[in-house]
Write a structure and sequence with these properties.
By secondary structure, the chain is α+β, with helices and mostly antiparallel strands. A 6-stranded antiparallel barrel has the order 2-9-12-11-10-13. A 4-stranded antiparallel beta sheet has the order 6-5-3-8. Strands 18-1-19 form a 3-stranded mixed beta sheet, with no helix packed on it. α3 runs antiparallel to α4. The longest helix has 29 residues. About 3% of the residues have low confidence.
Length: 360
Protein backbone atom coordinates (compact mmCIF):
# COMPACT_ATOMS: atom_id res chain seq x y z
CA UNK A 1 0.00 0.00 0.00
CA UNK A 2 2.75 2.42 0.88
CA UNK A 3 4.50 1.55 -2.35
CA UNK A 4 1.38 2.34 -4.36
CA UNK A 5 0.96 5.74 -2.73
CA UNK A 6 4.55 6.53 -3.36
CA UNK A 7 4.29 5.93 -7.07
CA UNK A 8 1.05 7.92 -7.27
CA UNK A 9 2.74 10.93 -5.69
CA UNK A 10 5.67 10.64 -8.11
CA UNK A 11 3.27 10.52 -11.08
CA UNK A 12 1.38 13.58 -9.78
CA UNK A 13 4.53 15.62 -9.41
CA UNK A 14 5.71 14.59 -12.90
CA UNK A 15 2.39 15.70 -14.41
CA UNK A 16 2.63 19.00 -12.58
CA UNK A 17 6.12 19.63 -13.84
CA UNK A 18 5.10 18.77 -17.41
CA UNK A 19 2.10 21.10 -17.23
CA UNK A 20 4.30 23.93 -15.91
CA UNK A 21 6.79 23.43 -18.73
CA UNK A 22 4.05 23.58 -21.35
CA UNK A 23 2.55 26.75 -19.78
CA UNK A 24 5.92 28.49 -19.64
CA UNK A 25 6.40 27.96 -23.37
CA UNK A 26 3.02 29.43 -24.37
CA UNK A 27 2.96 33.10 -25.75
CA UNK A 28 1.81 35.66 -23.22
CA UNK A 29 0.00 38.99 -23.95
CA UNK A 30 2.30 42.06 -24.10
CA UNK A 31 0.63 45.02 -22.45
CA UNK A 32 3.04 47.57 -23.97
CA UNK A 33 2.51 46.13 -27.45
CA UNK A 34 -1.23 46.13 -26.96
CA UNK A 35 -1.11 49.77 -25.89
CA UNK A 36 1.01 50.66 -28.95
CA UNK A 37 -1.51 48.89 -31.18
CA UNK A 38 -4.29 51.00 -29.69
CA UNK A 39 -2.30 54.22 -30.29
CA UNK A 40 -1.46 53.13 -33.85
CA UNK A 41 -5.08 52.38 -34.59
CA UNK A 42 -6.10 55.76 -33.19
CA UNK A 43 -3.39 57.52 -35.28
CA UNK A 44 -4.53 55.69 -38.38
CA UNK A 45 -8.06 56.91 -37.89
CA UNK A 46 -6.77 60.47 -37.55
CA UNK A 47 -4.54 60.06 -40.57
CA UNK A 48 -7.54 59.20 -42.74
CA UNK A 49 -8.90 62.73 -42.12
CA UNK A 50 -7.27 64.98 -44.76
CA UNK A 51 -6.65 68.67 -44.23
CA UNK A 52 -7.50 70.62 -47.40
CA UNK A 53 -8.25 74.09 -48.74
CA UNK A 54 -11.53 75.00 -50.37
CA UNK A 55 -13.38 77.80 -52.15
CA UNK A 56 -16.99 78.86 -52.37
CA UNK A 57 -18.29 78.75 -55.92
CA UNK A 58 -19.38 82.14 -57.22
CA UNK A 59 -19.69 83.75 -60.64
CA UNK A 60 -17.41 86.43 -62.00
CA UNK A 61 -15.73 87.85 -65.08
CA UNK A 62 -13.35 85.51 -66.93
CA UNK A 63 -10.90 87.13 -69.34
CA UNK A 64 -9.66 85.13 -72.29
CA UNK A 65 -6.11 86.40 -72.70
CA UNK A 66 -2.93 85.76 -74.64
CA UNK A 67 0.29 86.08 -72.64
CA UNK A 68 3.44 86.83 -74.64
CA UNK A 69 6.76 88.58 -74.19
CA UNK A 70 7.68 91.76 -76.04
CA UNK A 71 10.13 94.63 -76.00
CA UNK A 72 9.80 98.39 -75.61
CA UNK A 73 11.00 100.39 -78.61
CA UNK A 74 11.46 104.16 -79.01
CA UNK A 75 8.96 106.05 -81.12
CA UNK A 76 11.86 107.36 -83.20
CA UNK A 77 15.61 106.75 -83.02
CA UNK A 78 18.51 107.78 -85.23
CA UNK A 79 22.29 107.80 -85.22
CA UNK A 80 23.36 111.39 -85.82
CA UNK A 81 26.06 112.11 -88.41
CA UNK A 82 27.26 115.08 -90.43
CA UNK A 83 26.35 115.26 -94.11
CA UNK A 84 29.83 116.51 -94.98
CA UNK A 85 33.40 115.93 -93.88
CA UNK A 86 35.47 118.29 -91.79
CA UNK A 87 37.13 119.13 -88.50
CA UNK A 88 34.70 119.28 -85.55
CA UNK A 89 34.90 122.75 -84.01
CA UNK A 90 31.93 122.71 -81.62
CA UNK A 91 29.80 120.22 -79.63
CA UNK A 92 26.75 122.17 -78.49
CA UNK A 93 24.77 119.60 -76.50
CA UNK A 94 24.87 118.04 -73.05
CA UNK A 95 24.88 114.25 -72.99
CA UNK A 96 21.60 112.73 -71.86
CA UNK A 97 19.65 115.98 -72.17
CA UNK A 98 16.39 116.79 -73.92
CA UNK A 99 16.80 118.62 -77.22
CA UNK A 100 14.31 120.34 -79.50
CA UNK A 101 13.80 119.82 -83.21
CA UNK A 102 16.19 122.07 -85.16
CA UNK A 103 18.52 122.67 -82.20
CA UNK A 104 22.21 122.96 -83.15
CA UNK A 105 24.11 119.98 -81.77
CA UNK A 106 27.56 120.11 -83.39
CA UNK A 107 29.52 121.87 -86.15
CA UNK A 108 32.50 121.26 -88.40
CA UNK A 109 34.88 123.90 -89.75
CA UNK A 110 33.19 126.13 -92.38
CA UNK A 111 35.67 129.06 -92.61
CA UNK A 112 36.38 128.57 -96.33
CA UNK A 113 32.68 128.41 -97.11
CA UNK A 114 32.04 131.55 -95.07
CA UNK A 115 34.78 133.33 -97.04
CA UNK A 116 33.23 132.19 -100.33
CA UNK A 117 29.85 133.47 -99.17
CA UNK A 118 31.25 136.90 -98.31
CA UNK A 119 32.95 137.13 -101.72
CA UNK A 120 29.75 136.30 -103.57
CA UNK A 121 27.66 138.62 -101.43
CA UNK A 122 30.14 141.42 -102.16
CA UNK A 123 29.53 140.90 -105.90
CA UNK A 124 25.78 141.23 -105.48
CA UNK A 125 25.76 145.04 -105.30
CA UNK A 126 27.75 145.37 -108.54
CA UNK A 127 25.55 142.82 -110.29
CA UNK A 128 22.35 144.61 -109.20
CA UNK A 129 23.75 147.94 -110.42
CA UNK A 130 24.56 146.46 -113.83
CA UNK A 131 21.04 145.13 -114.20
CA UNK A 132 19.58 148.51 -113.19
CA UNK A 133 21.76 150.42 -115.72
CA UNK A 134 21.07 147.96 -118.53
CA UNK A 135 17.31 148.15 -117.88
CA UNK A 136 17.43 151.97 -117.98
CA UNK A 137 19.41 151.95 -121.24
CA UNK A 138 17.05 149.39 -122.72
CA UNK A 139 14.08 151.67 -122.00
CA UNK A 140 15.81 154.35 -124.10
CA UNK A 141 16.81 151.84 -126.79
CA UNK A 142 20.49 152.44 -125.93
CA UNK A 143 21.30 148.70 -125.54
CA UNK A 144 19.95 145.56 -127.02
CA UNK A 145 17.58 143.17 -125.28
CA UNK A 146 20.31 140.52 -125.49
CA UNK A 147 22.77 142.66 -123.48
CA UNK A 148 20.14 143.25 -120.82
CA UNK A 149 19.29 139.53 -120.58
CA UNK A 150 23.00 138.71 -120.20
CA UNK A 151 23.48 140.88 -117.09
CA UNK A 152 20.23 139.53 -115.65
CA UNK A 153 21.51 136.00 -116.13
CA UNK A 154 24.78 136.89 -114.42
CA UNK A 155 22.79 138.21 -111.44
CA UNK A 156 20.65 135.07 -111.17
CA UNK A 157 23.76 132.89 -111.46
CA UNK A 158 25.37 134.83 -108.62
CA UNK A 159 22.26 134.30 -106.47
CA UNK A 160 22.35 130.58 -107.21
CA UNK A 161 26.03 130.41 -106.25
CA UNK A 162 25.22 132.10 -102.94
CA UNK A 163 22.42 129.57 -102.29
CA UNK A 164 24.83 126.69 -103.02
CA UNK A 165 27.38 128.01 -100.52
CA UNK A 166 24.70 128.56 -97.89
CA UNK A 167 23.52 124.98 -98.41
CA UNK A 168 27.09 123.74 -97.97
CA UNK A 169 27.37 125.75 -94.76
CA UNK A 170 24.14 124.14 -93.52
CA UNK A 171 25.75 120.73 -94.10
CA UNK A 172 28.48 121.65 -91.64
CA UNK A 173 25.85 122.00 -88.89
CA UNK A 174 24.32 118.99 -87.14
CA UNK A 175 20.79 119.75 -85.93
CA UNK A 176 18.20 117.64 -84.13
CA UNK A 177 15.69 116.16 -86.62
CA UNK A 178 13.02 115.80 -83.88
CA UNK A 179 12.44 116.36 -80.18
CA UNK A 180 14.09 113.71 -78.04
CA UNK A 181 16.85 112.67 -75.66
CA UNK A 182 20.42 112.93 -76.91
CA UNK A 183 22.72 110.07 -75.97
CA UNK A 184 26.44 109.91 -75.24
CA UNK A 185 29.01 111.67 -77.43
CA UNK A 186 31.03 109.41 -79.68
CA UNK A 187 33.55 112.05 -80.84
CA UNK A 188 35.19 115.16 -79.43
CA UNK A 189 36.02 118.65 -80.63
CA UNK A 190 39.09 118.47 -82.88
CA UNK A 191 38.17 115.09 -84.38
CA UNK A 192 37.79 114.73 -88.13
CA UNK A 193 34.22 113.69 -88.95
CA UNK A 194 32.78 112.20 -92.11
CA UNK A 195 29.24 111.15 -93.07
CA UNK A 196 30.00 107.67 -91.66
CA UNK A 197 31.04 109.05 -88.26
CA UNK A 198 28.35 108.67 -85.57
CA UNK A 199 28.29 111.73 -83.32
CA UNK A 200 25.57 110.52 -80.95
CA UNK A 201 22.16 108.86 -80.84
CA UNK A 202 18.86 110.73 -80.63
CA UNK A 203 15.83 108.93 -79.22
CA UNK A 204 12.19 109.94 -78.83
CA UNK A 205 10.63 108.10 -75.89
CA UNK A 206 7.20 109.76 -75.76
CA UNK A 207 5.32 107.71 -76.80
CA UNK A 208 6.88 104.23 -76.74
CA UNK A 209 6.24 101.33 -79.07
CA UNK A 210 5.57 97.86 -77.68
CA UNK A 211 6.63 95.16 -80.15
CA UNK A 212 5.67 91.50 -79.74
CA UNK A 213 4.70 88.44 -81.77
CA UNK A 214 1.51 86.39 -81.60
CA UNK A 215 1.00 82.78 -82.80
CA UNK A 216 -0.65 82.45 -86.18
CA UNK A 217 -3.89 81.07 -84.70
CA UNK A 218 -4.49 84.44 -82.99
CA UNK A 219 -3.58 86.64 -85.97
CA UNK A 220 -7.18 87.48 -86.87
CA UNK A 221 -8.03 88.35 -83.27
CA UNK A 222 -5.33 91.05 -82.90
CA UNK A 223 -6.03 94.16 -84.94
CA UNK A 224 -5.43 97.92 -84.75
CA UNK A 225 -7.38 99.21 -81.78
CA UNK A 226 -6.97 96.05 -79.67
CA UNK A 227 -6.19 96.95 -76.05
CA UNK A 228 -3.48 95.27 -73.98
CA UNK A 229 -1.69 95.61 -70.66
CA UNK A 230 1.99 94.98 -70.01
CA UNK A 231 4.36 94.85 -67.07
CA UNK A 232 8.12 95.35 -66.75
CA UNK A 233 10.65 93.88 -64.36
CA UNK A 234 10.94 95.72 -61.10
CA UNK A 235 7.38 97.07 -61.11
CA UNK A 236 4.02 95.56 -60.19
CA UNK A 237 2.14 98.24 -62.10
CA UNK A 238 0.36 97.38 -65.33
CA UNK A 239 0.68 99.81 -68.24
CA UNK A 240 -2.03 100.16 -70.93
CA UNK A 241 -1.25 100.20 -74.64
CA UNK A 242 -3.20 99.97 -77.90
CA UNK A 243 -2.27 98.03 -81.03
CA UNK A 244 -1.76 100.38 -83.99
CA UNK A 245 -0.23 98.12 -86.67
CA UNK A 246 0.85 94.58 -87.47
CA UNK A 247 3.17 93.01 -90.01
CA UNK A 248 1.84 92.30 -93.50
CA UNK A 249 2.67 88.56 -93.40
CA UNK A 250 3.32 85.67 -91.00
CA UNK A 251 6.96 84.70 -90.41
CA UNK A 252 7.44 81.38 -92.20
CA UNK A 253 10.10 80.25 -89.72
CA UNK A 254 8.35 81.00 -86.42
CA UNK A 255 4.72 81.00 -87.66
CA UNK A 256 4.10 84.19 -85.71
CA UNK A 257 3.14 87.71 -86.71
CA UNK A 258 4.86 90.82 -85.38
CA UNK A 259 2.53 93.39 -83.81
CA UNK A 260 3.19 96.89 -82.49
CA UNK A 261 1.26 98.89 -79.92
CA UNK A 262 1.64 102.42 -78.56
CA UNK A 263 2.06 103.39 -74.91
CA UNK A 264 1.75 107.08 -74.02
CA UNK A 265 4.72 106.92 -71.58
CA UNK A 266 3.91 110.13 -69.70
CA UNK A 267 6.99 111.98 -68.45
CA UNK A 268 9.20 109.41 -70.19
CA UNK A 269 8.92 107.06 -67.21
CA UNK A 270 9.83 103.88 -69.09
CA UNK A 271 12.94 103.54 -71.23
CA UNK A 272 13.28 101.69 -74.55
CA UNK A 273 14.91 98.29 -74.64
CA UNK A 274 13.13 96.83 -71.60
CA UNK A 275 11.36 93.50 -71.84
CA UNK A 276 7.60 93.55 -71.35
CA UNK A 277 5.22 90.85 -70.17
CA UNK A 278 2.10 91.37 -72.28
CA UNK A 279 -1.47 90.32 -71.56
CA UNK A 280 -3.63 90.65 -74.65
CA UNK A 281 -7.35 90.38 -73.95
CA UNK A 282 -9.27 88.39 -76.57
CA UNK A 283 -12.73 88.29 -74.99
CA UNK A 284 -14.51 88.81 -71.69
CA UNK A 285 -17.00 86.25 -70.32
CA UNK A 286 -19.36 87.57 -67.67
CA UNK A 287 -21.15 85.50 -64.98
CA UNK A 288 -18.70 82.65 -65.52
CA UNK A 289 -17.86 79.93 -62.98
CA UNK A 290 -14.07 79.68 -62.99
CA UNK A 291 -12.04 77.37 -60.72
CA UNK A 292 -8.32 76.71 -60.24
CA UNK A 293 -6.97 74.32 -62.85
CA UNK A 294 -5.35 72.14 -60.13
CA UNK A 295 -8.81 71.34 -58.69
CA UNK A 296 -9.75 69.33 -61.80
CA UNK A 297 -8.96 65.60 -61.79
CA UNK A 298 -8.97 63.93 -65.25
CA UNK A 299 -10.18 60.33 -65.04
CA UNK A 300 -11.09 57.87 -67.80
CA UNK A 301 -11.56 60.62 -70.38
CA UNK A 302 -13.77 62.67 -68.05
CA UNK A 303 -13.15 65.57 -65.71
CA UNK A 304 -14.24 65.62 -62.10
CA UNK A 305 -13.85 67.76 -59.02
CA UNK A 306 -14.45 67.12 -55.32
CA UNK A 307 -17.01 69.00 -53.25
CA UNK A 308 -17.17 69.31 -49.48
CA UNK A 309 -20.41 67.77 -48.19
CA UNK A 310 -21.12 66.91 -44.54
CA UNK A 311 -17.41 66.69 -43.71
CA UNK A 312 -16.59 64.35 -46.59
CA UNK A 313 -15.27 64.62 -50.14
CA UNK A 314 -17.80 63.91 -52.86
CA UNK A 315 -16.78 63.68 -56.55
CA UNK A 316 -18.76 65.54 -59.22
CA UNK A 317 -18.32 65.24 -62.98
CA UNK A 318 -17.93 68.62 -64.72
CA UNK A 319 -17.92 69.96 -68.27
CA UNK A 320 -15.12 72.44 -68.91
CA UNK A 321 -14.97 75.43 -71.22
CA UNK A 322 -12.38 78.14 -71.66
CA UNK A 323 -8.93 77.63 -70.14
CA UNK A 324 -6.55 80.36 -69.05
CA UNK A 325 -3.10 80.08 -67.48
CA UNK A 326 -4.45 79.54 -63.95
CA UNK A 327 -8.18 78.99 -64.20
CA UNK A 328 -10.69 76.95 -66.14
CA UNK A 329 -14.34 77.66 -66.88
CA UNK A 330 -16.94 75.14 -65.70
CA UNK A 331 -19.98 74.94 -67.98
CA UNK A 332 -21.89 72.18 -66.16
CA UNK A 333 -21.61 70.33 -62.86
CA UNK A 334 -21.10 73.15 -60.34
CA UNK A 335 -23.53 75.62 -58.81
CA UNK A 336 -23.12 78.90 -56.95
CA UNK A 337 -22.63 78.19 -53.25
CA UNK A 338 -20.93 74.79 -53.65
CA UNK A 339 -17.75 74.28 -51.63
CA UNK A 340 -14.99 73.10 -53.95
CA UNK A 341 -11.90 71.34 -52.58
CA UNK A 342 -8.84 72.96 -54.16
CA UNK A 343 -5.89 71.11 -52.60
CA UNK A 344 -4.95 67.48 -52.06
CA UNK A 345 -6.92 66.44 -55.12
CA UNK A 346 -4.65 63.46 -55.85
CA UNK A 347 -5.36 62.04 -52.36
CA UNK A 348 -9.10 62.59 -52.37
CA UNK A 349 -11.57 59.76 -52.83
CA UNK A 350 -15.28 59.29 -52.38
CA UNK A 351 -16.51 59.80 -48.77
CA UNK A 352 -13.01 60.54 -47.45
CA UNK A 353 -13.33 62.62 -44.27
CA UNK A 354 -11.75 66.06 -44.74
CA UNK A 355 -11.06 69.10 -42.60
CA UNK A 356 -11.07 72.57 -44.15
CA UNK A 357 -7.96 74.62 -43.34
CA UNK A 358 -9.00 77.64 -45.42
CA UNK A 359 -12.05 78.60 -47.45
CA UNK A 360 -11.65 81.34 -50.05
Amino acid sequence: MNKKLKWTAVAFVACGLAAWGIYSQMPKPNEELAQADKVGASGKDKKDILNVNAMKIRTGVLDDEISVTGILLPDEEVNLSFETSGLVVDMAFKEGSHVKKGQLLAKVNDRKLQADLKRLQAQMKLANDRVYRQRTLLQHDAVSQEAYEQVRTELETLKADIDVVKAQIDLTELRAPFDGIIGLRQISVGAYASPTTVVSKLTRVVPLKVEFSVPERYVNEVNPGTALNFTVDGSLQEFPATVYAKESAIDVNTHTMTVRALYANPNGRLTPGRYAGIRLKKQEIRDAIAIPAEAVVPEMGKDKVFLYKSGKAQPVEVTLGLRTEARVQVLRGLHVGDTLLTSGTLQLRTDLPVTLDRVD
